[in-house]
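ok, trying the design again with the full structure, not the truncated one.
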């Protein structure tokens, strides 16, 4: 059974980062819109190689998500289906699906704008501002997530990622990897 705290975190992710068009469900078009938003953030045009790579990655993530979560096979993932899927993940995060690994990697690379293998506060907050979150919340979230260090490495990010989806402890630093300072 998903705790109310974990459900709030999962719905934050669903509403801010996946249901881009605010339709109440996740569909393929949400990933197209996300690719457009990310490309604007990075200054890529629709014909650029980086835009195409981003779109391809996001469509792969969508296909894996749809396969894993779309229980009624209607081409949409509802909030209920989303939460149920992540509850299955939380029971055994070490045997996650390929698309979940791809999503984790995608998010890290998106945040690591400098490509140095680590995320700093500015890189982190810029990404989450582009999704409509407040900079001061993003900075506060980064400081908790990083435990006050100037950067978060790929190895640390993976550990924080698992914590986000599995932890019921509001004080765990992994709860802050998606920019929210509170739930």
């Amino acid at each position: 059974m998903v705790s109310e705290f974990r459900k709030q975190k999962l719905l934050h992710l669903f509403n801010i980062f996946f249901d881009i068009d605010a339709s109440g469900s996740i569909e393929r078009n949400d990933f197209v819109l996300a690719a457009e938003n990310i490309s604007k953030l990075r200054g890529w045009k629709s014909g650029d190689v980086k835009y195409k790579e981003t779109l391809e990655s996001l469509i792969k993530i969508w296909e894996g998500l749809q396969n894993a979560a779309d229980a009624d096979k209607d081409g949409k993932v509802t909030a209920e289906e989303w939460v149920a899927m992540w509850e299955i993940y939380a029971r055994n995060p070490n045997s996650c699906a390929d698309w979940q690994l791809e999503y984790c990697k995608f998010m890290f690379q998106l945040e690591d704008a400098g490509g140095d293998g680590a995320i700093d506060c500015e890189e982190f907050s810029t990404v989450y501002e582009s999704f409509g979150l407040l900079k001061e919340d993003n900075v506060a979230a980064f400081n908790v997530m990083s435990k006050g260090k100037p950067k978060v490495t790929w190895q640390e990010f993976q550990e924080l990622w698992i914590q986000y989806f599995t932890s019921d402890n509001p004080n765990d630093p992994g709860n802050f990897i998606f920019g929210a300072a509170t739930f």
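Keeping the full-length input from now on. The CA atoms of residues 61 and 143 lie 28 Å apart.
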